[in-house]
Write a structure and sequence with these properties.
The chain folds into two domains: about 240 residues, BirA Bifunctional Protein, domain 2; about 90 residues, 3-Layer(aba) Sandwich (Rossmann fold), CATH 3.40.50.800. About 40% of the residues lie in helices and about 20% in strands. Strand 15 and strand 16 form a beta hairpin. The chain is elongated. Bound molecules: adenosine-5'-triphosphate and magnesium ion. The site of adenosine-5'-triphosphate (ATP) has 18 residues, from strand 6, strand 10, strand 11 and helix 12.
């Protein structure tokens, strides 16, 4: 029997990896531009971490986690998101106490969901987190980072939706009112909503079931329960976004799927990816560090789905830095084989960014040129017996930039350097 990949877990082939490398390079540059340092974390954490961070009655923990016991009997999970691990590491290494910390993180995350376009069981996130800054300027900063990323990737057409969840205090008052309201309409709610009514009523608000949605229309709105400080925080976030010219829409229904949010929550949404339109989502989580046993430290950040980002780049046909070879060296004959081997290494030494393939495995000139063309290279360098004897190389454009011409071997570097702007 042929062994196949696990459902919902995808391979990225070399032909498709240019977009991934481009995203990583641009993202790393953007995050550095805002002073964020990269944190690299294990893929596996203790299950307890996610139960406590994400919340025991969330979809993610209740239904989507890959949890298992290791051989020593430890209860472990593949991480379903990155923030919990970032906070765990921050506490463990003592880098969150009494200081500001700007970090980013990336890698695979795992959720047992129904696979479809834009929704997978292994997917990848880019994560940005700012700790120890309680003021709304940090909320504005992380949103601006995403906006800067769209700009540098050449993406457009997002809607930024924002909302505030206020403090735990206002949420508790609102929650009580919400439970009372939903309990009055219990019979009309769908099964999931009935179950969540008492455990996690806020989640009922973003139900996709029409009958439940109709009831939710009349539910008490959190915005009406906010205290003055929460309103001031939210106003300052909006003012900061206005100052940067970042357009947004306040969406009072936006509550997010994870339990740890306070104050600002936001999503960058596109209508170009069908049902899976949220590319980036985040918010403030002032209680999370303490909840995980750390010092009282505020946090704000976002998680971005790289697969959805790359799908959108495809839809908008944005330009991606190519990783195809630029030069392919063809070689025929004993002397030419050695000269080409040496030339390839000289060129790679001189131009660290040059992408050069040296023909290997022999073949006629015709078959080598065919490989050269298929590699995507812009130029073939051809060395046969005649060129080897003359100390020269034929430079052949593979993309219709004029006829092949001989070039002394000592001039090849200069010729390629100027043609390829190396
Ligand atoms: P959704 O509502 O689409 O399920 P979510 O609220 O569960 O998203 P988050 O936990 O906020 O998502 O994760 C951040 C981002 O990761 C999402 O905005 C999305 O771009 C991406 N993402 C989430 N789940 C998946 C998945 N199963 N496959 C691919 N990308 C995903
Ligand atoms: Mg989800």
């Amino acid at each position: 029997m042929k062994i196949q990949s696990v459902r919902g877990m995808n391979d990225v082939l070399p032909a498709d990896s240019a977009a991934w490398q481009h995203v990583h390079a641009v993202a790393a540059q953007v995050f550095a531009a805002y002073g964020y340092g990269e944190l690299r974390l294990p893929v596996v954490e203790r299950t307890e971490l996610f139960k406590r961070a994400v919340g025991e009655v969330t979809d993610v923990v209740e239904k989507e986690m890959y949890s298992f016991e290791d051989r020593g009997g430890e209860a472990l999970s593949l991480r379903p998101e990155l923030t919990a691990g970032v906070v765990r590491a921050g506490i463990e290494h003592g880098i969150l106490f009494n200081q500001q910390q700007r970090v980013w993180c990336t890698g695979p995350v795992f959720r047992y969901e129904r696979p479809q376009a834009g929704r997978y069981r292994q997917f990848h996130q880019l994560d940005v987190e700012a700790f120890g800054i309680a003021t709304p300027d940090a909320d504005v900063e992380v949103i601006a980072i995403a906006a800067q990323l769209w700009k540098r990737l050449g993406l457009s057409g997002f809607e930024l939706q924002i909302n505030t969840l206020g403090t735990p205090g206002c949420r508790a008052t609102h929650r009580a009112a919400l439970i009372a309201y939903l309990a009055q309409h219990e019979a009309g709610l769908d099964e999931d909503a009935q179950r969540r009514l008492h455990s996690n009523p806020l989640r009922v608000l973003d139900s996709k079931v029409p009958a439940t949605q109709a009831i939710v229309e009349g539910a008490p709105k959190l915005l009406d329960y906010l205290d003055d400080a929460s309103i001031a925080h939210f106003d300052a976030v909006k003012a900061g976004l206005d100052a940067l010219g970042i357009a947004f829409r306040v969406n009072p229904r936006l509550v997010r799927g994870l339990d740890y949010y306070t104050h600002t929550v936001f999503e960058w949404v596109t209508d170009q990816l069908g049902a899976q339109g949220t590319v980036c989502a985040g918010g403030r989580y002032d209680g999370l560090v303490e909840q995980l046993g750390g010092p009282k430290t505020t946090g704000v950040g976002f998680g971005l789905g790289i697969e959805r980002l790359i799908l959108l780049m495809g839809v908008q046909q944005v330009a991606v830095t190519s990783n195809a070879p630029q030069v392919y060296i063809c070689r025929m004959g004993a002397a030419a084989e050695v000269q080409a081997l040496q030339l390839a290494e000289v060129l790679r030494d001189q131009f660290p960014t040059l992408r050069l393939v040296l023909n290997a495995g022999g073949g006629s000139l015709k078959s080598q040129l065919k490989r050269a063309d298929q590699s995507g290279a812009r130029y073939a360098l051809v060395i046969g017996d005649d060129e080897a004897a003359a100390g020269s190389v034929q430079v052949k454009s593979l993309r219709g930039e004029g006829d092949a011409f001989p070039c002394p071997r000592s001039d090849v570097a200069a010729e390629l350097g100027s043609r390829l702007a190396l």
